[in-house]
Amino acid sequence: xxxxxxxxxxxxxxxxxxxxxxxxxxxxxxxxxxxxxxxxxxxxxxxxxxxxxxxxxxxxxxxxxxxxxxxxxxxxxxxxxxxxxxxxxxxxxxxxxxxxxxxxxxxxxxxxxxxxxxxxxxxxxxxxxxxxxxxxxxxxxxxxxxxxxxxxxxxxxxxxxxxxxxxxxxxxxxxxxxxxxxxxxxxxxxxxxxxxxxxxxxxxxxxxxxxxxxxxxxxxxxxxxxxxxxxxxxxxxxxxxxxxxxxxxxxxxxxxxxxxxxxxxxxxxxxxxxxxxxxxxxxxxxxxxxxxxxxxxxxxxxxxxxxxxxxxxxxxxxxxxxxxxxxxxxxxxxxxxxxxxxxxxxxxxxxxxxxxxxxxxxxxxxxxxxxxxxxxxxxxxxxxxxxxxxxxxxxxxxxxxxxxxxxxxxxxxxxxxxxxxxxxxxxxxxxxxxxxxxxxxxxxxxxxxxxxxx
Length: 454
Hints:
Blueprint: E1 5-8, E2 15-23, H1 27-34, E3 35-37, E4 51-56, E5 62-71, E6 82-89, H2 91-103, E7 107-108, H3 113-120, H4 126-137, H5 141-151, H6 154-178, H7 189-207, H8 210-218, E8 220-225, H9 232-240, E9 258-264, E10 267-273, H10 283-298, E11 301-307, H11 314-323, E12 328-334, H12 344-351, E13 355-356, H13 365-375, H14 390-411, H15 416-434, H16 440-448
Parallel strand pairs: 1-7, 8-10, 8-11, 11-12, 12-13
Antiparallel strand pairs: 1-2, 2-6, 3-4, 4-5, 5-6, 9-10
C-alpha cells in the first residue's frame, strides 16, 4: 500500500459539485501539483481545513476553481494521508483533474480500495467496512439507519464481546498447560459453562436477526399471483406508482415475469408480476406460467389477486393451491369499482382476511400496505445490530455450531482440550466475521464489490 491512489468519488453525471479523493504517502506532494491555492501550498496548510484555489489540468493550466482539504495520517478515513478536491460537477472537468492526478504520480484506485485500506490500517473492522457499501446502496431509511449503526460499531461491539470471552477461556487454558509451575488460576468448570452459555445466547439472538436484515437490505421477495386478467399487472403498476407492466383487457397479456422494487410502508418489496396461471396450448405462455410457479417457490410473500367481478373458477382454485405453498400470504379482491360477483363473507372465512381494492384507481392500496407491514412487524432491535448478508450469517452460524459443540462436550465430561478445540473453531469463525482472522483472497473478493472511489 505504498503507492498513492486516486478516484472520482461522486457520480459521473453533471451535478453542482464533484469530488475526487486520493490517499497514500505521496498525497500532499501530488496535491501540490494539481491544486494551487493563494499563498502557501497545500502541504504546508493546516489539517482538515478547506482551502480555495485553482484546480490544474495536466499542462498546469487552471481548469476549475474549487476547494481542497488534506487529512493527515493517522486521523483520516484510510489511516494514511488523504485528500479531497471539490470541483464543479462537470464529468469532463472531473476526468481531466483525475488525469492530472495520475500525471502527478497517483494511480487509479480499484473498486473499494479506499475502504480496503481503512480496514487493513485498522480504521474499520470488516463488519464496519461492509456497512459502508450497505449505506451507499440503502433503498429505505431503515436500511440506511442500520448501515449507519453498523458503521458506528453497534454490531461489532457485540461480536467483539463474544470473541473476547472465548479468547479469555482459551488463553487461560493454554497458560495453565504451558506453564504448570506458574501460579495461574485453573479454569473452573462453572466459568466455562457460563461463558459458553452466554456466547450461545448472544450468537443465537444475532443469527435470528438475519431474516429481518436480509429483507431490510435486499427487499422482501414478493410474488403477485392470479388467473389471467385478474389485475396483477395493474396492482404492480399501482404499487410502483407508474405504468411498468402492460395492461389490456386481453387475457394472457403478461407472458413473462416482470420484476421491480417498491417501498410499501417501512418495507422494500422485490415485486414479481407473473403470467396468469392457467392451462394453455400457447408455447410462450406455457413457459411464462412455469416461470410464475418458479417465482412462487422463491417468494417469502404471495399476493393472491382475485377478480371480484367474476365468480371463482377452476383457474382461481389452481392459483390458490400455488399461493398456499408460499410462507406468508395475503388475499386481494380486485376491481372493487365493478359490480361484485363473489361471496365476500365466504372468502374472508376461507382466507382469514380479504383486502378489497381497485388497482386501476389505487383505492385500497393503503390497506394493503398496512396488511403487508403487519406481517413483518418492526423488531425491537437497535439500529446497526441486524445481520445483513449471507457471509455474516454463515460466520455466525459456524461460530454458534462450534460453541454449542463445546458446551455439549463439557456437559459430557470430556477433557478440556476437546472443549477448547470447538471454542477455537468459534473464534476462527468470529475472526472471519470481523476480519481478525481472514484470508487475503477473501478480503479482496469482498472489497471488489465496492464502487470505485469508495
